Amino acid sequence: xxxxPKLLAxxxxxxxxxxxxxxxxxxxxxxxxxxxxxxxxxxxxxxSERKVYSVVDVSADDKWRLIPCALQVLYILLKxxxxxxxxxxxxxxxxxxxxxSFLGIRTIWVDSIANVKQISRAGKLAQKRADVFLTxxxxxxxxxxxxxxxxxx
Length: 153
What we know:
153 residues, alpha/beta, Rossmann fold, 7-stranded parallel sheet, 4 helices, 29% helix, globular
């Protein structure tokens, strides 16, 4: 029996988390998925068979939380050593993409389907370091750095 490579799946709550779970469900046969999410989701999500870490959520109103979030994400990356990072946003995912890229971990960003008119603020940050950057809206794709492969929802 071969050991499955690890994939870190990380996002903010709400629609980001729903989309991340839909993407991750299709990858469970190939990867051992380690989840990271804000603690608020622990009470509302079934986590019985998942390896889950709690991370601080960050918003534009509380940017100071980037520091504890980054430290938590760095700890997870160093402890778990994932082969890849998958995120649907927002700030915790962007932090993971940046840190992962510096550690040589493959990074994949899927911008939220809610961002119809433009790439999200966190997505613009992640785009600078992501190995693969996907949008769920064809008109936002440039065909090169921002790719469209369909929608998650």
